[in-house]
Amino acid sequence: MQERFILQVEDLTVSFDGFKAVDALSFYVEPNECRVIIGPNGAGKTTVLDLICGRTKATAGSVKFHDQELLTMREDQIVNAGVGRKFQTPSVYEDLTVFENLELSYPKGHSVFGALAFKRDAEVRERIEEIAGTIFLGDQLDEKAAFLSHGQKQWLEIGMLLIQDPELLMLDEPVAGMSVAERKKTAELLNRIIQDRSVIVIEHDMGFVADIATRVTVLHQGKTLSEGSMERVQNDPKVVEVYLGH
Ligand code: ADP
Ligand code: MG
Asked: How far apart are CA 45 and CA 7, in angstroms?
């Protein structure tokens, strides 16, 4: 039987010198769900992702990915368990090509020799080409990342995560600084990505949110202010008051 939730966040709390940036937060993510977290600046959105990926240590609570408790795991163990995280600013290697950036992110297997190594190289190349196509960079494989647009760099970084095949992908404001056309394509990309995995996205652009969200969680002062379909949270008077009305 397929489990109901891929991620279960319960009573998650972090306190920085007594200030609770995330305060007894609970939410649950289903397989193939795109959960969007919205909310005013300083609401705790980025901190939630930092806690899930192990970058920041929680003060209390639980984050279960399948049956694994992530809060006691190191960042690299969480990545290996299948949780990928993209930060706000793209961090691609400017001097390397699109192909090389993707190749560097390809999961390292055991080293192999001779005919086996040859076979592995072919597999890696095939996978890189497939991912490049998915992120709209199929024709830019030999282009240095430095020459890509800001939006293309963001896609490349998503590709560098996708090539590791995470079951849960977390993206912090992926369309910030993108053109309208790039935003539309990113929405298309995310809708394709969730066919095989779950995604948590932090975003401000409500048009983009409407294009991608399965469910929306509105965060305010480290707590859930409202949660549900885009339609539901948009019409929630509390959300209009603290966020959308501004
Ligand atoms: P958001 O992403 O919703 O804009 P953040 O999660 O970045 O908000 O920040 C939430 C609050 O926690 C802010 O008041 C921020 O200043 C504070 N904060 C975040 N990280 C730290 C930290 N490492 N030390 C102290 N305060 C922090
Ligand atoms: Mg943030």
From this structure: 16
